[in-house]
Amino acid sequence: MSIKNIVAGAAIAAIGLGAMPAYAKTVKVTLHAVEKNVQIDNKGTEYPAWTFGGTVPGPVLRVRQGDEVRIRLVNQAPMGHSIDFHASEVAWNDEMRSIKPGESLVYQFKAQRSGAWMYHCGTAPVLHHIGNGMYGLILLLILITTALNLALHWWDRKLATRRRRE
Ligand SMILES: [Cu+2]
Questions:
Q1: What pTM value is reported for the model?
Q2: CB of 88 within 8 A of CB of 106?
Q3: pLDDT confidence band for 21 (50 / 70 / 90)
Q4: Which candidate among 10, 77, 109, 150 keeps its CA 20 to 30 Å from the CA of 19?
Q5: What are the residues whose beta carbon lies below 5 Å from ligand 1 (ion)?
Q6: For domain 24-143, which CATH number applies: 3.30.365.10, 3.40.50.620, 2.60.40.420, 3.40.50.300?
């Protein structure tokens, strides 16, 4: 990594920190449970996946310690689904219960335990739902790791731009 990249990353992180709103906030995300064919190799092979938001894994969610997290799950699939957030401290079989096709439910918790946590569909059989694609990552960040996260986000975007040009 060159000095130019390090300086650019630090500058972007500093700008990001300066632009942050008040420390704790409410984070609202809507995820759609959908069945979708996803490509699983570079030859165009597709697999009929069960997804959060049409991708496997689901989207990376970034919240900060102290935030109130409200995830609205909209079930557009033909079977029951749910979300189990390992970052939360609520009962998976109550607040994170399964919902039927066509239903929606808000999963809500206060982000208190920093770390990188898995989220996944918790509907039985759980391993079948995870294995078919219903899992993702939620980053629960304390302030110092937020700066690191911004730098990583900048790096991700830079790599994505490079891939598009290739
Ligand atoms: Cu599921």
A1: 0.71
A2: no
A3: very low
A4: 109
A5: 81, 121, 123, 129, 134
A6: 2.60.40.420
What is the distance between the alpha carbons of residues 52 and 59, in angstroms, rounded to a whole number? 7
The tens digit of pLDDT for each residue in 45-59 reads 999 999 999 999 999
- Quote the ligand 1 centre to 145 CA distance (angstroms): 31
Ligand 1 centroid distance, CA of 30 (Å): 16
Ligand 1 mean position, distance from CA 39 (Å): 19
**CA atoms of 11 and 157, how far apart (whole Å):** 15
Residue for token digits 């995830």?
A: 71
Q: What is the whole-number distance in angstroms between the Cα of residue 96 and the centre of ligand 1?
A: 12
Distance from the first to the final alpha carbon of the chain = 20
Q: Give the pLDDT band of residue 92 (cuts 50, 70, 90).
A: low
The alpha carbon of 22 and the centre of ligand 1 are apart by a number of angstroms equal to 35
Q: Which of 34, 38, 60 is nearest to 47 (CA)?
A: 38
**What is the 66 CA–ligand 1 centroid distance (Å)?**
28
- Which helix (H) or strand (E) segment holds residue 127: the answer is helix 126-131
| Boundaries of every domain in the chain | 1-22+144-166, 24-143
